[in-house]
Amino acid sequence: MQPPSVFPKSLKSTCAALAMALAAAFPASQAAAQGNAKISDGVVRMGLLLDMSSLYEDVAGKGTVTAVQMAIEDFGGKVHGAPIEVVVVDHQNKPDLAATKAREWFDADKVDMIGDVAASATALAAAEVAKQKNKVILMSGPGTSRLTNENCSPVSVHWTWDTYALASVIGRGVARTGGDSWFFITADYAFGHSLEKDTSEVIKAEGGKVVGSVRFPLNNADFSSFMLQAQASKAKVIGLATAGGDTINAIKAANEFGVTKNQKLAGLLVFINDVHALGLDVTQGMQLTEGFYWDMNDETRKWSKRFFDKMKKMPNMLQAGSYSSTLHYLRAVQATGTDETAPVMAWMKANPINDVFVKNGKIREDGRMMREMYLFEVKKPSESKGPWDYFKLKATIPADEAYMPLAKSTCPLVKK
């Protein structure tokens, strides 16, 4: 026999309404309390498609794996009691291999999310598979702006940077300080093409001109002929639409041929790893766009020291971005009580992103993660206090200025 209620009907109704409101506001607490969390196969499994052996290994590679493992560690290692696993594959910068592995992961290996996918061509291939399979893909490594334009997807997020942001920040900055004629040395694949295109549009909008360009094959060792063409063009600025080891080799060639005596070198994508490899004598005065620098504040210094203790080098924006995307994804799984794509993506887009990489970041409808970007200048040797003390901040660019406005987007998800 049930005991009589000691609460009046109106009070019971009020309590019920309050309970429903709290459950809606805190879905993770509700799922945990009722034991209703639904983690498929009892494991949250993340796949990292990376360059582990070629020109992007230093800027992504093992450092990205380490950053993701740090995010899992900081999260607590489990979600609703389910372990978090990471599987890693070297895509060897081959789009067909990236697509094959992504399909295999989703179909056979029960991978819930793919992360990083350094290099644009491989990212475009993997993102298409993720779209077909309705699985989450969070991309920190690639740069092509196509990922949030014609190739956008409801399951993909372009997290850290893109070619439009590089172009708008450094292209505009150089053009406005007298660099009004450009010659491009461009990597002959999706990333290089997008970067040259986006930067050219910015230069022309600023009243400048592009006098020529030349394209080189991926992972190129000899830039002598390309530098001679750039030198002969008499352009004020030589734009390097390059990345990773190609950037290092191109800058070395520019110095060997004395190009920098009469022409300005614009490294459109330069990482702190590149500056460290080349030294301040070679890179001093170069301007670059970044989304993260280890020495920005106490929080970035503390996190970067942990990374350095593991890797013996400071992190770059790709690695910090992978940490951020992993943490936000795990928070979404925790909050929704599931690793199903639709609720996880909805939560990620509805909630701000706050961590060491970004404050109050948000995911736009085209899949672009919006955050401020920075224009840095490489220090002179006399200005540096020691190893990895390489950058000085020149400008902070708000997200809505750094990234392509939705009005220009060709993404079919964008409401015009």
Task: Name the average pLDDT.
Answer: 90
Computed structural class = alpha/beta
Would you give the CATH topology of the largest domain?
Answer: Rossmann fold
Q: In what range is the share of β-strand residues?
A: 15-25%
Helices and strands, in order, run as: HHEHEEHEHEEHEHEHEHEHHEHHHEEEEH
Per CATH, the class of the largest domain reads Alpha Beta
Q: Distance between the terminal alpha carbons, to the nearest Å?
A: 62 Å
State the total count of DSSP E strands.
15
Q: Can you say what the CATH homologous superfamily of the largest domain is?
A: Response regulator
Largest sheet: 6 strands, mixed
Q: Give the name of the CATH architecture of the largest domain.
A: 3-Layer(aba) Sandwich
